[in-house]
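Records of this kind hold a single protein each, on a pair of labelled lines. With that in mind, the following record should read easily:
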Amino acid sequence: MNRLSALASLACVAALATPAVAQDNVLNLYSARHYQTDEALYANFTKLTGIKINRLDGREDELVERIRNEGSASPADILITVDASRLEVADKLGLFQPVKSAVLEQRIPANLRTANWVAFSTRARVIVYNKTKVKAEQVQTYEGLADPALKGQVCVRSGSHPYNLSLGAALIAHDGEAKTEAWARGLVANFARAPKGGDTDQLLAVAAGECGVAISNSYYLVRLLRSTKPSDQEAVKALSVVWPNQASWGTHVNVSGAGVLKHAPHKDAAVRFLEYLASDQAQAYFANGNNEWPVVDSAVAKNPELASLGDFKRDTLPVGDLAKNVAAAQKAYDRAGWQ
């Protein structure tokens, strides 16, 4: 940790330890994250600040709709969810308010925050292949998955899912909309089956030889690596992972993030919570909760299986720019027939 980061971290902890103002002794959190390690994360915030967290868990769409319906009477202070496209949906609906914080500006890289919401962990969209069905050199890029040589080999979840829409948004930013649509058409032509299930289903299908290659978020693979189930342990033996596009713009990364809501009744507490999530200790909790990487360089996620995947060149496209292309990605997928 460099001296500047160390000072910022100490300032963050000192600010959190300051007694809370009476009306800010409560924080109402709407969360689409459902991980056991988050319990320790929230308990530690209360221990540091005296601010009690009231948490409402739910699906992203349900929480966004609830906040909209509650309007100015909403008790919610913070919305936490995953994927830049989902955060952008909430932002476009006017649900967030701008936050100015020296701690967040110092701790969170500029490409991982916007004026209205901030990322706190990252995950990569990786290529996973069956070592007996596909050669590594065939699947080194996202674009390469549209090569006719892979006809009947590709498994992937729905094109309407936010994870794939965010990938499409990144491709549009780097390759343009026309090339991204052509890529999507080639990908559809290479499907081994119609899209179904989640990323874990794609990985297991690749392991079983139903298809040769899949696109998956990195944490799904790490979950299999950490699993004690004999079937999962057997499955991972058949799989290899590729960090795509290492020779060009880097592997697409997405985020878990949060923002202060427009009508937050406890704004001061909400900002303090976001600053807490940027501390080294909270970063480790937050990232380990879903086998992700912290966004703060000095924070360390103690996750041997995640570390075993190694390091890689990441796409540094700003998350705000990524989110802006999501609608165009959906249209390109629709025209290509990726349902």
Q: What stands out?
A: Residues 3-17 form the longest helix (15 residues). The two ends are 45 Å apart (CA to CA).
